[in-house]
Structure formats: C-alpha cells, structure tokens
Amino acid sequence: MGIRNGLHLILKIQPALNWTPSCPEAVYIPTGLETEPLYPESKEDTVVYLAEDAYKEPCFVYSRVGGNRTPLKQPMDYCDNTLMFEARAEYEYQLTVRPDLFTNKHTQWYYFQVTNMQAGIIYRFTIVNFTKPASLYNRGMRPLFYSEKEAKAHHIGWQRIGDQIKYYRNNPGQDGRHYFSLTWTFQFPHNKDTCYFAHCYPYTYTNLQEYLSGINNDPVRSKFCKIRVLCHTLARNMVYILTITTPLKNSDSRKRKAVILTARVHPGETNSSWIMKGFLDYILGNSSDAQLLRDTFVFKVVPMLNPDGVIVGNYRCSLAGRDLNRNYTSLLKESFPSVWYTRNMVRR
C-alpha cells in the first residue's frame, strides 16, 4: 500500500456493533467533477504497510482452528516526528488489494483498519488494482465505514460514506494488464480513532459460530434445529450443516421433501451470509408460517461453504486457490471437501 502522510493502515479486524440505521442510506449522486487520480511509480511516497511482507508467514497458521490469533505484523516503521511537506489540500493514500491466496487475481473486495487520523481533514483513498470493468460504485454505491468512537459514544455501527466517488480504468500495470481504480474522499469524525472501511457489511466465521452457539443453547430452537459438522476444510475448520424440521416419533419424516440451502461459497460475498441469517431467523421463529414450513419440509442448511476463504480474507477462492463454485463436479474430495460433501448429501 502506498501512502502520503501519517495515517496507519492495518489489516486487523475487530467485531462491530450490531445496529440498524434509522433511515435508508442515501446513494452517491455523481457530480461529473470527480477526479481520476493516477499514481505512476514513485520512490518519493512513503510506504507504511506492505502486504508482501505481512503475508510471508504461512496463512494456514492464521486460518486453522487454534491458529495464531494475534494481528498480522505491521512491517514498516513509522517516523511520526519527521516533518513532511505536502502541497495538496487533501491527504492521499494509494492502496493495492492482495489477490486471493495462491492466485494472481480476484481483487474486488476489501476490509481494512486505519488509525492515527485527524478529524476535519479531507483524506483520499484510491484502490488501484481492481479487475472488473464495471462497478456499482458508478451507480451510487458507497464504501462502508465503522468508527469505534462513534460506536461507543453514539451506538452507530457500519454506515455508507464518501464523496468524490468514482470507479474508472487506470494506467496499465507492470504486467501489461489494465486495472481499475476506486477512489473516494472522506473526513474522519474524531482524532486518533480506530476505524474500518469495507466493501460490504462484514460477516465473519466467528459471527457464524456465535450465532450457531445461540441456537444450540436455546431450549426451544434446539429442539427442531440440529447442528452437525458436515466436514472439515483444508485448514481443519468446521463446515456446519443444520437440519431444521419438526421432530416426529416415527418414520413419517422420510415422507417430507427436503429443501437445501447453502451460502458463502465466495468469501467476499458477505451479503449472502446476512441473507442466510435472515432466513434462519425466520424459519426458526415462532410464526405460524415458520411452524407450517417446519412441519412440511426438512431443511438442510450449509451456512458457510468456504470458511477458510472467509478467515484469510479471500474474495472468491478457497485455500486450494480455486473457485469452489466451479468444482461441484470434481472428484477431488481432499481438495474441495465442502462442495464434495454437500453434493454427496444432495444425492442421498
């Protein structure tokens, strides 16, 4: 990540306040005056976070059960006492998104932490190595922002922010490929805060485990929702499967048709986890319709097919470096266990 001035960028993720905005968040309306920053190779800029160094340690250590839970190290030293001259009216940060592990592509998702900011100053962030030619950012979508001080003082969670938002084609990279940039400006509400930016509302493997633990400890819902382990991933994380139906004392349950739902085959598509949570909240609820559905069907639910990819921050792939959504027909059980066992469960 390239940088100008003294903001600290860290890939350390914290849990967030669960809240619902009081009104729909406004989309960004382009003015036609948005700038398109270009960042040629320059040795004058100060690099404060270098992903190539931060990820030298094996990522399997960070993804496996019982792995290293300390934050990834910050490889660059800071010289906050050094006087820096900047003629611009805003502080500019050039960021490069790490590709999915063991690939050289799939750069369309981000979630990072920043600290050491000053309130009231215009900061510009530009992510320079996206690969898709079109984006919802040119149709009003805005980056997500979370402030720990805002959460503590005002109970405000994730919110859409940003001005001067534009997604555009930039200059070719060193490999000759054309990339696309996302740029936006923002003024932080507090000095020395700890803040986060994200592409979509985060939903982590820990969030899922806490949610399932709540179901398992509920004396009512646990009667008709049984949680089991479908399989283990390459990093030995558990892939859970939920069986939801009204229990019967005889074999009549075999006459019920099955409904199979899965989510989060692509780690960066966090919206699928929120949709799955909404479905589970409903089907495990006490409404008459939910009761009728449980009486009529057997629901088999795999809420997170790719926990390894979620844990290491991939956008699309598993730790095999492959898209699980393209490998449902594969016979390689050891390489793609979650989709192999899901397919086997469907066939039964």
Short descriptors:
alpha+beta; six-stranded mixed sheet; Aminopeptidase; 2 domains
- Write out the strand line-up for the largest beta sheet, numbering strands in chain order: 3-1-4-6-10-9
Largest sheet: 6 strands, mixed
| Backbone CA Rg | 23 Å
Number of helices: 9
How many distinct folded domains? 2
**What is the terminal separation in angstroms?**
48 Å
Q: What structural category arises from helix and sheet content?
A: alpha+beta
Strand residue content: 15-25%
What would the principal axes of the Cα set say about the shape?
Answer: globular
| Low-pLDDT segments, ≥5 res | 1-5, 81-89
Mean pLDDT: 85
Q: What is the chain-wise order of helices and strands?
A: EEEHHEEEEHEEEEHHEEEHHEHH
Helix-residue proportion? 10-25%
Number of strands: 15
Structure characterization notes:
This protein has helices at 51-54, 59-63, 148-154, 205-216, 221-224, 270-283, 288-296, 307-312, 337-347, and strands at residues 2-3, 8-10, 46-47, 91-95, 111-115, 122-130, 144-147, 159-160, 163-169, 180-187, 194-198, 225-232, 238-244, 257-262, 297-302. It has two domains: 2-198, no CATH class; 205-347, Aminopeptidase (3-Layer(aba) Sandwich), CATH 3.40.630.10. The radius of gyration is 23 Å and the shape is globular. The N and C termini lie far apart (48 Å). Strand 12 (225-232) and strand 13 form a beta hairpin. The model is unreliable at 1-5 and 81-89 (pLDDT under 50). It has a six-stranded mixed β-sheet, with no helix packed on it. It contains nine helices and 15 strands. With 348 residues, it is an alpha+beta fold. It catalyses: (L-glutamyl)(n+1)-gamma-L-glutamyl-L-glutamyl-[protein] + H2O = (L-glutamyl)(n)-gamma-L-glutamyl-L-glutamyl-[protein] + L-glutamate. This is Cytosolic carboxypeptidase 3-like. Its cofactor is Zn(2+).
